[in-house]
What we know:
Elements: H1 13-31, H2 34-58, H3 62-67, H4 83-89, H5 92-125, H6 131-140, H7 146-160, H8 166-189, H9 194-202, H10 207-218, H11 220-235, H12 239-244, H13 252-263, H14 267-287, H15 289-301
Helix pairs in contact: 2-14, 4-14, 5-8, 5-11, 5-13, 6-8, 8-11, 11-14, 11-15, 13-14
Amino acid sequence: MTTDAGTLGKPGPVEVVKARESLGERLAGIVSGGLVRVFLIVVGLFWLVPTIGLLLSSLRSPEDMSASGWWKVFSQPSQLTFHSYKTLLENSDITSSLWNTVLITVPATILVVVIGSLAGYAFAWMEFPGRDWWFLGVVSLLVVPVQVALIPIAQLFGKIGLFGTIFGVILFHVGYGLPFAVFLLRNFFAEIPRELLEAARLDGAGELRLFARVVMPLGGPAIASLGIFQFLWVWNDMLVALVFTKSSTQPITVALQTQVRQFGNNIDVLAPGAFISMVIPLAVFFAFQRQFVSGVMAGAVK
């Protein structure tokens, strides 16, 4: 048996594969190690610094905030007080605007989710004339900027008596939220196995029962993701509210901006108001975080 002298001392294919595997395993061990976790925790803490700073500022008196930064509470915990929140609750403009925000956000989110789900199912599994062209028209609305339609729709709402009303703001948000909702849910519902729907139809299920008993449970993650997106967008909106609301129907974002314009740096009202305005959508996001992640990852696992 002869051996090629030129190959002596060189690793064979098996050894090369083992070396590559060991290198990959080592890299995987480093990535999943404690050092990376500590780094991610530090990044998360830095991301929370503005929220923590706003919370601590809302728990300090205006005099303390004028004298020093919010981090002084760690050395002087006696500065913490709920006086600013008491002042906020006594401000009728802020409290009424917070209620207006709820009245705008909740219906706008529910209507977009319900109508978008029905339309997404229809575009995905129902046959009707011009279905693809209608869907193309809906998707094309995604590229229309909100700013383009503000003045024409404001003029239209003024003629029909909806300008300055909460219902008008809800209608605007629903109209601009539906194209994205239909696009998202149609693509998700289209991934449902056809055999599953055909089996339900053979069992005597109609379209509405099929939608409620089969499609909706399977589309839960995508629907939850859509609901979170819509809720955050409407709750934090200021541009549409500035144009379509008046003093009695303005949401919290416009009310806080009005407080700045009227009273300057009245931080004892602005800090707790801004924190409440921010913490509610954060609570909604974390409450549905699992469904949101499932909806985002659903397309990757199919």
